[in-house]
Each structure stands twice: as structure tokens, then as C-alpha cells.
Amino acid sequence: MASPALSALVLSPFAGSFLANLAVRLPAGEGVVRGRSRCRSCGATLGVTDLVPIVGWLLLGGRCRHCRAPISAFYPRFELACIAVALWAALVVPGWPVWPTSLLGWLLLTLAAIDRAHFILPDMLTLPLLGLGLAVAAVLAPDRLGDHAIGAAAGFAAFALIAAAYRRVRGREGLGLGDAKLLAAGGAWLGWQALPTVVAGAAGLALAVALAARALAALGGASAPPLAADQRLAFGPYLCAAIWLVWLYGPLSAAGG
Ligand SMILES: [Zn+2]
């Protein structure tokens, strides 16, 4: 494996550790960069060995070494997911672009985790992701930078319009502007041509997951939970997945390519 891929893989559990921390602290309004990591139960400052991703969690049996309070399995699971993202990137993307690809995947994972748990997509993540997408486009394909800038604007406008229409028809908030900023970031990374694939892909994934959940519930003998029309659904994770897949494999084209 070439060295950019290897360095991304080596870095991935540490990026995962930092971003898992961010995903927990950001929605709680806590600082991340300032201060060291603390046990969320007793407040004890975690030592270096406690912060070694995954291994530290396993060695401590998933508990704080001071108060023995359980430390959420979210942390090692998130770190494993970040390793998987770097591996996936290394298998698909040749050369140094594996770095921005891994970074995109890690940030999308963070956004998906936060949205799934809290129904928010913080500006502190979506807006830097948007800027990063334009910067990467400027380096990788400077002659197509305009497509990516239009993608960012069109992504925001399209989703903001859908959200406004939804609000008017249903009389309440269904899609937040966080989703619009996330789609804007997607447009910045992918160019405006990819936006229809991203939106259709995200909607298709959301529907497939909802149907699979109903089928599983039915198989388990439980009465299928009704898919209430007013049920709250975090759309962000599906947008994140669609952006990731289109970045790696390209948008669907009319030619079927
Ligand atoms: Zn503790």
C-alpha cells in the first residue's frame, strides 16, 4: 500500500478519537480544543493511556480508571468506523487524494453521528466542510472550480426551498437549514452536476432503511411500528452516506455510467 494510504490508516484511530470526543461535546456546548479529555462521570482528567484509541478502552474494560463508571462504547465504535473509512478510501482512491477523501469521510461520520443523536448538524462542522470542499476542488480540478461553487450555492438553495415548502404545507419544521448547509458542502465537494444523485440517493437510502426496519420488526413477531407521517427522521446521516458514495464512485449519469 502506498504511503499516503498507510499514513491515513495510521492516523485514522486518532482522528476517530478526536472526532468522537467532538461529536459528544459539541452538541453539549462544551469546548473541545481547550482542555484535555475528561471522564464524563467523575471529571477526572484522562491520561495518555486512556486516550489510546480502542486499545485503551478495551484494556480498561470500558470503564473509567478512577470511578469505574462505564465509558460509552460509542468511542471505540466510532474509532473503528474511522479506520474503516480510511481503508475504504485507500482501496478506491489512488495517491495523495486519499487524505482529503479520508478527511471527508471522517467529518461526514461525525456529522451523521451528531445528527442521529441530537437532530442537529452544527455550523461548526458543515461550514468548514464546505470551505474544504472548495479548496480541494481548487487543487484537484481548478478549471472546474466554478461547478463546485455553483454546487455549494445550488445545494443550499435547493434544500432551503424544499424545507420552506415543507414548512408551508405541513405547518411545521421538517427539514432544517443544517441539512441545506450539508448539501451545500456536498455540492462544494462534488460539483452541481452530482446534486440530483446525492438527493435521490439519500432519499432512497432513508426509504430502504425504513422498510428494512419494518420488515425486521415483522419478522421478529412484533407488530411493525407504524411509519407515522410526523415521525422525526434525521436526514443528515443519509445525506452523508450519499455524499460519500458519490465522491468515491461518481454520480449516476443519463448514459448509465
Ligand atoms: Zn470517572
Q: What does this entry look like structurally?
A:
There is one protein chain. The protein is mostly helical and 257 residues long. The chain has 2 domains: 118 residues, no CATH class; 138 residues, no CATH class. The protein has 10 helices and no strands. Helix 8 runs parallel beside helix 10 and helix 9 packs across helix 10. The longest helix has 26 residues. The structure holds zinc ion (ZN). The site of zinc ion has 8 residues, from loops.
Largest sheet features: none
Strand content: under 5%
Multimeric organization: single chain
Outline the low-pLDDT stretches: none
- Name the average pLDDT: 86
Number of domains as seen in the coordinates: 2
Class by SSE composition? mainly alpha
The general outline is globular
Rg from Cα: 20 Å
Order of helices and strands: HHHHHHHHHH
Binned, the helix content reads 55-70%
Bound molecules: zinc ion
Total E-strand runs: 0
**Number of distinct helices:** 10
Q: How far apart are the termini? A: 28 Å
Put the structure in a nutshell:
With 257 residues, the protein is mainly α. It contains ten helices and no strands.
How is this fold's topology laid out?
Elements: H1 3-25, H2 48-51, H3 55-59, H4 74-92, H5 98-118, H6 123-140, H7 145-170, H8 177-190, H9 195-219, H10 236-249
Helix pairs in contact: 1-4, 1-5, 4-5, 5-6, 5-10, 6-7, 6-8, 7-8, 8-10, 9-10
Bound molecules: zinc ion.
Zinc ion binds at residues 39, 41-42, 44, 64, 66-67, 69.
